[in-house]
Amino acid sequence: MFLIPAAAPLILETTRFSIGICDLPHNHRPNRCDSGSGGLPDRSGMDSIPSRRMKTTESPTLPAELSPILAASLLGGTPLAWLPAPEVPAPYQQLLVHDHDMTSELAGFHQDSISLAILQSRQTENTYFREVTLHAATSGTPVEYGLIEILLDSFPAAIRPLILAGDTPLGTILTSSGLEFRSEPQGFFTIPADVLHPVFPQSPTGAKLFGRYNHLIHEDGSCLARILEILPLTSANHQSLFPMKNYDAIIIGGGPAGSTCAALLAEKGHRVLLLEKDRFPRYHVGESLMPFCWFTLERLGVVDRMADIGYTKKHSVQFATQDGRISAPFYFFEHLDHPAATTWQVERAEFDLMLLDNARSKGVEVRENTTALDFLKEDGRIIGIRARTEDGEPFEVTAPITLDCTGRDALFQRKNGWRKRDPKLNKIAIWTLYQDAMRDPGLDEGATTIAYLDGRGWFWNIPLRNGIVSSGIVAERDYLYRDSRDPAEIYAREIENNAWIKEHLSQGRQFGEYWVTGEYSYRSEHCATDGLVLVGDAFAFLDPVFSSGVFLALKSGEMAADATHAALLSGDISANTFADYGEDLCGIIEVMRQLVYAFYDENFSFGKLIRAHPHLRAKLTDCLIGNIQGQDFTDLSEALKEFADIPAPLEHGRIPSRLQADEFSITPCANAATP
Ligand SMILES: Cc1cc2nc3c(=O)[nH]c(=O)nc-3n(C[C@H](O)[C@H](O)[C@H](O)COP(=O)(O)OP(=O)(O)OC[C@H]3O[C@@H](n4cnc5c(N)ncnc54)[C@H](O)[C@@H]3O)c2cc1C
């Protein structure tokens, strides 16, 4: 591993050397930068550059001389994706597409002098190779990564020791010496930022870095150096990428998904507008959290606040048969030795307000009572939205990226026919609240109970604070509406069908509304289009039997924020940027979806599964707590198939392969303005 020197800035050498071409050795025969290369060996990854790019872009061959240091460098065999100079976005256009010395360009851009740190070097007779980083001298911030082959015998003898001393950037030495030289960029490229994470740790996962392959040429035409120069992303840069937009990101919807995206993007320095059609606090169903919500809440900085509020602690989930027998609870702490093992039953009005306030405190501009109506489109991409203020005034607002977090309203999905229902999970739910219903003792007081209804559905029982219980039924429409459409009557009837529920609710008093919802599980045709990404329930909704909704909203909010941050920094906000987002999110949802299918299969029971495959208890618990991302659940999936009809993964939900212009309907953009 290379040692990256501490950012002890070097004070730059300002002495001017006056050595001209006349000082070069008498028998000097100029090197040519493009001589004797024979091309880069296979491990450079050049072969993997897509042919689409090869045809349309300049794609120079790196010289063989660079290959030893390239192979041993952080870049290793990373492919360079070449792109034509005009496609290099600002501010990298300014920084890379020019024929001057890079060091002075960086000094001007960062308003600082530039220092050098050598990661590794090696010298042959006339050639000095090195892998370096350049830093803004005052702050120590890395401003360039470079791989350089310096042809020593092209330099006057007096300069060579300065170069070999390794204290000062080559560009600074050359400029100070008065040697006439120029840059001849051979090509421009991108590489994944992850490759250079050791030197640019601030780069978000999935971002692209821009660089150039450059020749430094003496005025006599001789080659001084061949250099790969790669620039970091900086949070300041993105604003100049999209100077004409009102905001960097517009978020529609202030539920858990929207607040999470907004807070995390604002934290990264983006200008974020969040529109919410309601005034918070407002009632929302979905009170029972999964343990792995903890990690997003921790990242948002609200875990202590959760503890202060004093929500009901949830240590487990348990299952009750129709005749009232209760399963051994799945205690999360038996599986997870972490504070996350204790999760919460939350009143969503208060929980969602806390998250929205958290986003506000991080600089998000939140407008409540403001409804997004439609999307604005320009040149095939979403560039903002049309909305209505609380006074009913229409207005338009623009941003390079819009995040649809509108929950089950799913604005973009509905407007564009992207909603695809999960046919077998076509249930309806009726729910209400009870005061002073019976609670289980001790640790089980805050447990979520899932109580079965004759293979047709289930009750949830979620104990909240102040003696309140959230109670709901989920079942097929025909079953629930078989003799009445009155939710109160249906409720009274079904309570009689589960002994555990009857015992617990009969001691309490129902109050407030009965709510009903249909259109159960669905997933969007795609997760993104150019300039827009779908998050939380606005992307997909899964039957809530395992309380996965808020977890998926928080998790997808976090994933979308990271992907959006990377997209904003790289300047590429096309749907392609969200390919991994869609893939990863669908992967997580599929694991939960298989379990939901199993739950509804009359041949399945958790008891049967665990008795047949005791070693899968841990995997099953991982699913129930939300520890899904990055894990392989193939064995659990195979075991589930022994007892239940498990569906194949859905194919939709990823980015579109190719959007047709008329594939989605958008309002043409008028004058964008903030009211
Ligand atoms: C019956 C039922 C029971 C459930 N039980 C649970 C449970 O126990 N545990 C659990 O984790 N999950 C549960 N869920 C799921 C959970 O409620 C959701 O998954 C979760 O709220 C999704 O969060 P979100 O931020 O994506 O959407 P939401 O929380 O719905 O937030 C979306 C926000 O967008 C706003 N909005 C909508 N349209 C617009 C617009 N045009 N302009 C501006 N704002 C707009 C809305 O007002 C809303 O505030 C349940 C769901 C249902 C239906």
Descriptive overview:
By secondary structure, this protein is of the alpha+beta class. Among the domains are: 21-234, Chorismate lyase, CATH 3.40.1410; 312-345 and 427-519, 2-Layer Sandwich (D-Amino Acid Oxidase, Chain A, domain 2), CATH 3.30.9.100. Helix content is 26%, strand content 25%. The protein contains 20 helices and 29 strands. The strands form six sheets. Strands 1-5-6-7-4-3-2 form a seven-stranded antiparallel β-sheet. Residues 252-258, 275-278, 284-289, 371-372, 405-409, 411, 429, 431, 472, 517, 536-538, 544, 547, 549-551, 553 line the site of flavin-adenine dinucleotide.
Quickly give the CATH architecture of one domain. Answer: 3-Layer(aba) Sandwich
- Cα shape: elongated
Uncertain runs: 1-28, 36-57, 235-244, 658-675
CATH fold-level name of one domain? Chorismate lyase
- Strand fraction equals 15-25%
Ligands (ions, cofactors included): flavin-adenine dinucleotide
Order of strands, widest sheet: 1-5-6-7-4-3-2
Cα-based radius of gyration, to the nearest Å: 30 Å
Q: Share of helix among residues?
A: 25-40%
